[in-house]
Automatic annotation (TrEMBL), chain A:
InterPro entries: Actin, ATPase_NBD. This is Actin-related protein 5. Coiled coil: none annotated. Belongs to the actin family. ARP5 subfamily. One of its GO terms (cellular component) is cytoplasm. GO terms for biological process: actin filament-based process; regulation of DNA-templated transcription. Transmembrane segments: none annotated. It comes from Manihot esculenta (Cassava). The keyword Nucleus applies. SUPFAM superfamilies: Actin-like ATPase domain.
From TrEMBL, chain B:
InterPro entries: INO80C/Ies6, Vps72/YL1_C. Residues 73-102 form the Vps72/YL1 C-terminal domain. Transmembrane segments: none annotated. GO terms for cellular component: Ino80 complex. One of its GO terms (biological process) is chromatin remodeling. It is found in: Nucleus. This is Vps72/YL1 C-terminal domain-containing protein. It comes from the Eukaryota. Keywords: Nucleus, Transcription, Transcription regulation.
C-alpha cells in the first residue's frame, strides 16, 4: 500500500532551530509535512476535513484527515461529508486549508506562540496568483511564518531522481496525480512551463469510474462500495492493458486467460441453515406425541360429556319429581309451592323439561331427526304452547303481559325457522330440477353441451380473473415498476383510481351547463361507485360469478375427463416473483472484477471514455514537445530518452510499457525512447523539496512578509522557484 | 467526549497556541460563510489571462488540446469494443446479448450509464 497515513504527534519540535524550514507537500489527495533535510515526512494524512456533530453533546467538531472509522461512530456524519480545499488541483477553500494546516502543525508538535520556521510548500503548475497570494497571506498572518517558498511537486520529484541518476538533465516529467495529469519538459535541469501541458484526469476519476461501474453492476451491494474500499480495490487490482482492444476481446470470448485475470471479492455471507428431513424416529416420536395429545383431548371431552349428561339427568329427575308433587298440590297453592323452586307456572316447568330432554339427547349423541320431530310436535301444539298470544292485551294482568311478550318472541323465532326450512327445501328442489334439465340436455346432444359448457367456463373464468386483476393492481404486466421508482399513480389499484377519477370529475362538473343529474335512475349508481367501501364490499365470501364458476368447473370435471381447471392460485402473480424466492447463494455475494481492472485506468490514456475531451498520457508527450520547440528534433530525442513517471497514479502495473509504446507511435522510427519510473512516485516530491529546503541557497528563494506586501501581486505572479542550485 | 476519542485526539482543538488568530475569531459563529470562496472557474475569470501575452504559460493555456485520435467506442455496460449503438437509449453495446440487457434497463440506469461518459440528458 503506497498510501499510509501517519499522524502521531511529534515530540521533538523544540529541538529544531528557527532556521530549519518546514516542508509541506500539499497534494490534492495527501498532505505531507516534515523537516527540511530529513528523508521522510513526519506526518502524512488525507487532505480532507469533516465537520460532523458529536452525537451525545451535539456540538460540531472538526476532524482532519482519515481516522479509524470505528471512532466515527460517536459522530453524526450524515449532514456533512468529507470536504477538500481543492477545486481540481488548485486550493480555493482556505477555511478548510486552515484546518488542515492547523492539524499538520499541531501533529508536528508546534507549541510556541507562532510557527517560527521558513516554509516550503508545493503548489500546482501555474497556480493562479489569487490562490498563491491567499496561501501566503494565510501563512503570514495566521501562523506568523517568517518566510515562504512555493515549488511544483513534479519538478521536485524529477530533480530528486535526476540527482540519483534515474533521469537526465533534459527530459520529461509525466505526473498523473489525483485530479490532474501533467507533462513538464526539463531543459538543463530547469522545468520549462511553456512546454507544459495538463489534462484534467487523475486517480480521482479512476476511482470514481470504478465505483460507478461496480455499483451499476451490483446494485444490491451498492452500500459496500465506499470510496475508501474502491480506492483499495483500485490500488490492488487495476492494471494498464498493453492493448485495450485485444485485452477486452480476451474477456469477450471468455477464454481461460481472462478467467484467471478475473478477481473475485467474496462479501461476508453465511449460508442459511440446511433443513434436514426428519428421521424415522423423529416422525414416529412426533406421531406418538400427537396421538397422546389427541387421546388426552378425547378423554377430556368424554369426561365433560358424561358429567353434563349426569347433570342433565339430575335436573330431569328433579323436574319430574316436581311435576309429580304438583299433581298432588291444590291449584291455589301452586304459586306458594313454587316460590322456592324458582319456577312460576306448571307450563314453564314443562317447557324447561322439554328443553332439558332435548339437550340430554344431544349430549348423548342421538340422531337429530328426533329433534325435528320434537319441533314438529311442538309446532302442532303451537296453540297450546302459546295460549296467551291470541288474547288481547287488556284482558291480561301485567304478569301475563310479560308472559305474552315472551311467547310472542318464541313464536316468531320458530316461525322464522320454519320458513327458512321451507326455503331450503324449495332450493333443493329447484337445483334438482336444473340438474335434471342439464342432464337431459346433455343426453340430447353430448358434444354440443360439452362445448357450451367449455365456453361458459372460459367466459366466467375470464370475468372472475379480470375482477381480481382490477382489485389487486391494474398494471401488473408492466415490468418496469419492479425496479423503477413507484409513482403516486401506481400505488393505487385500478378500482381506487377509478374512484378518484369519479370524485374529481364530480368536483369539477358542478355548475357547468344544465344539471341533469338524477334524471335517470342510473345516475344514482354513481354514489355507490364513489363510496369508500365499494372496493372491498365483496371481499367476504365468493360473489355470484365465482360460485357459478365453481359449479361449472365441477360439472365439467364430472363429464369431461380431459378437463383440467386453471390453477386458481393467483394467475396474476408475475414471473419476477420467482427469482426472489430462490435462496441466495454464495455467488450472489461475490463481486467479480474483470474488464473493470483495466477499463478504469484506461481513462488516463483515453479521457474520452469518461467524457473529458482532452489528450491522453501518450498524446500529451507529443503536445508538450510540440509546444516547446516543434522543429528541434535533437532536443526532442534528448527529451524522450529520459521520461520520468511520477505521481500516485503511475503505480499501475504496465503503465510504463504502455506509455513507451504510445510514445513510440508518435515519434519517428528509431528514435531513442526510455521510460523510467521514479524511485518512489508518491514520496519523491516531498523528498526533493526537503533537499532543496535544506540547501544553503534556499533562503534566497523565499520571500518574507515584507516582500509580500511591498512587491505586489505582479511580482508574486512571476515568482518562480529556481531548481538549479 | 468518549475517552477513546480523546485518546486518539480525533477532534481538532479549537484553540491552538501557535496561531495568531484563532478559527473562532476569524470565522465567528452564526455568520454565513459558505459562499465567499471563489471556485476555480471564478478565480480563473478574475485572473484576466487575456491581458497577458499568449506565450506566457498560465493555468488556462497549459491545458491539453482535444485528442487527435479517433474516439474509442466501448460498450457502456461490458467495456468490450462496441460496434453498435442503440438509437433509443444512446447506449453503445457490444452484441446481441448485451442489447437485450440494454433494452431491459430502466431509464434511471440508462442515464447513469450515460452520465459516466458525460452524455446523460441533463434537465435544467
Amino acid at each position: 500500500m503506497p498510501f499510509i497515513s501517519q499522524f502521531h504527534r511529534q515530540s521533538d519540535y523544540n529541538y529544531f532551530s528557527s532556521a530549519t524550514p518546514i516542508v509541506i507537500d500539499n497534494g490534492a489527495s495527501y498532505f505531507r509535512i516534515g523537516w527540511a533535510g530529513e528523508n521522510d515526512p513526519r506526518v502524512i494524512f488525507r487532505n480532507i476535513v469533516q465537520r460532523p456533530r458529536h452525537k451525545s453533546t451535539g456540538e460540531t467538531v472538526t476532524i482532519v484527515g482519515d481516522h479509524d472509522p470505528a471512532l466515527l461512530k460517536y459522530f453524526d456524519c450524515t449532514r456533512s461529508g468529507p470536504r477538500s480545499a481543492f477545486d481540481s488541483n488548485v486550493v480555493y477553500q482556505f477555511e478548510i486549508m486552515e484546518y488542515i494546516l492547523d492539524f499538520g502543525f499541531d501533529r508536528l508538535g508546534a507549541n510556541g506562540s507562532q510557527i517560527d520556521h521558513p516554509i516550503l510548500i508545493t503548489e500546482c503548475v501555474c497556480n493562479p496568483v489569487q490562490s498563491r497570494s491567499k496561501m501566503a497571506e494565510l501563512l503570514f498572518e495566521t501562523y506568523g511564518v517568517p518566510s515562504v517558498a512555493f515549488g511544483v511537486d513534479a519538478a521536485f520529484s524529477y530533480k530528486y531522481n535526476q540527482r540519483r541518476g534515474i533521469c537526465n538533465k533534459d527530459g520529461l516529467a509525466i505526473c498523473p496525480g489525483f485530479t490532474t495529469t501533467h507533462v513538464i519538459p526539463f531543459i538543463d535541469g530547469e522545468p520549462v512551463y511553456k512546454g507544459c501541458c495538463r489534462t484534467n484526469i487523475g486517480g480521482y476519476h479512476v476511482t470514481d469510474y470504478l465505483k460507478q461501474l461496480l455499483s451499476l453492476k451490483y446494485p444490491h451491494h451498492m452500500a459496500r462500495f465506499t470510496w475508501e474500499k474502491v480506492e483499495d480495490l483500485k490500488m490492488e487490482h487495476c492494471y494498464i492493458a498493453p492493448d485495450y482492444a485485444s485485452e477486452a476481446r480476451l474477456f469477450q470470448k471468455g477464454t481461460k486467460e481472462a478467467e484467471d485475470k478475473t478477481r473475485c471479492w467474496q462479501l461476508p455471507w453465511v449460508p442459511p441453515p440446511v433443513e434436514e428431513p426428519p428421521s424415522e424416529e423423529e416422525i414416529a416420536r412426533k406421531a406418538a406425541i400427537k396421538e397422546r395429545q389427541g387421546q388426552r383431548l378425547r378423554e377430556m371431552a368424554e369426561a365433560k360429556r358424561s358429567s353434563r349428561i349426569n347433570e342433565l339427568e339430575n335436573q330431569l329427575r328433579g323436574m319430574e319429581f316436581l311435576l309429580q308433587q304438583l299433581e298432588q298440590v291444590e291449584e291455589d297453592e301452586i304459586p306458594s309451592f313454587l316460590k322456592d323452586t324458582g319456577y312460576v307456572s306448571k307450563q314453564e316447568i314443562e317447557s324447561s323439561l322439554v328443553k332439558v330432554t332435548q339437550s340430554l339427547r344431544k349430549a348423548k349423541g342421538e340422531p337429530k331427526a328426533e329433534q325435528t320431530e320434537v319441533e314438529e310436535k311442538s309446532d302442532s301444539s303451537m296453540n297450546e304452547k302459546f295460549p296467551l298470544v291470541n288474547i288481547p292485551d287488556n284482558m291480561l294482568t301485567p304478569e301475563q303481559l310479560k308472559e305474552k311478550k315472551r311467547q310472542l318472541f318464541l313464536k316468531t323465532t320458530s316461525d322464522g325457522r320454519q320458513r327458512a326450512k321451507q326455503k331450503r327445501q324449495e332450493e333443493e328442489l329447484e337445483r334438482e330440477r336444473r340438474n335434471q334439465l342439464d342432464e337431459e340436455k346433455r343426453l340430447e346432444n353430448p358434444e354440443l353441451y360439452l362445448e357450451q359448457m367449455h365456453i361458459k367456463y372460459k367466459e366466467l373464468s375470464e370475468k372472475v380473473e379480470q375482477r381480481k386483476r382490477l382489485k389487486t393492481n391494474g398494471n401488473h404486466s408492466n415490468g418496469n415498476n419492479v425496479s423503477g421508482g413507484v409513482g403516486r399513480g401506481e400505488r393505487l389499484n385500478a378500482a381506487q383510481r377509478e374512484r378518484m377519477r369519479l370524485l374529481t370529475t364530480a368536483a369539477f362538473d358542478r355548475g357547468k351547463g344544465e344539471d341533469t343529474f338524477g334524471a335517470k335512475d342510473e345516475d344514482w349508481q354513481l354514489y355507490k361507485l364513489m363510496s369508500k367501501d365499494n372496493d372491498d364490499d365483496d371481499d367476504d365470501g365468493l360473489d355470484e360469478d365465482e360460485v357459478e364458476l365453481a359449479h361449472v368447473s365441477s360439472r365439467l370435471q364430472e363429464i369431461d375427463p380431459t378437463f383440467a381447471p386453471k390453477p386458481d392460485a393467483g394467475p396474476s402473480q408475475p414471473a419476477p416473483e420467482v427469482p426472489r424466492l430462490r435462496p441466495l447463494t454464495k455467488e450472489d455475494f461475490q463481486i467479480l472484477i474483470g474488464v473493470e481492472r483495466f477499463r478504469c485506468p484506461e481513462i488516463l490514456f483515453h479521457p474520452n471514455l469518461v467524457g473529458i475531451d482532452q489528450a491522453g498520457l501518450d498524446e500529451m508527450t507529443g503536445v508538450s514537445m510540440r509546444r516547446l520547440s516543434p522543429k528541434d528534433q535533437d532536443l526532442q530525442e534528448r527529451l524522450t530518452s529520459s521520461i520520468l513517471l511520477t505521481g500516485g497514479s503511475c503505480l499501475y502495473p504496465g503503465l510504463s510499457e504502455r506509455l513507451e509504446a504510445g510514445v513510440r507511435m508518435i515519434r519517428p522510427s528509431g528514435s531513442p525512447i526510455k521510460v523510467v519510473r521514479a524511485l518512489d512516485p508518491v514520496l519523491d516530491a516531498w523528498r526533493g523539496a526537503s533537499t532543496y529546503a535544506a540547501a544553503l541557497q534556499f533562503p534566497r528563494q523565499t520571500f518574507s512578509r515584507m516582500d509580500y506586501y511591498e512587491k505586489g501581486e505582479d511580482w508574486l505572479r512571476r515568482y518562480q522557484f529556481c531548481y538549479t542550485l | 467526549m468518549e475517552p477513546e476519542v480523546v485518546r486518539a485526539e480525533l477532534v481538532l482543538p479549537t484553540h491552538l497556541s501557535f496561531k495568531r488568530m484563532q478559527m473562532y475569531e476569524k470565522y465567528p459563529k452564526g455568520q454565513a460563510r459558505g459562499r465567499h470562496w471563489k471556485h476555480l472557474k471564478q478565480i480563473l475569470q478574475a485572473e484576466n489571462f487575456q491581458n497577458y501575452p499568449p506565450d506566457e504559460p498560465n493555468y488556462v493555456n497549459i491545458e491539453s488540446p482535444p485528442s487527435m485520435h479517433p474516439c474509442k467506442r466501448i460498450c457502456d455496460i461490458t467495456g468490450f469494443e462496441a460496434p453498435y449503438s442503440d438509437p433509443r437509449t444512446n447506449l453503445r453495446y457490444a452484441g446481441a446479448d448485451v442489447f437485450k440487457l440494454v433494452r431491459s434497463l430502466p431509464n434511471e440506469y440508462v442515464q447513469r450509464y450515460l452520465a459516466l461518459r458525460n452524455a446523460a440528458v441533463v434537465l435544467k
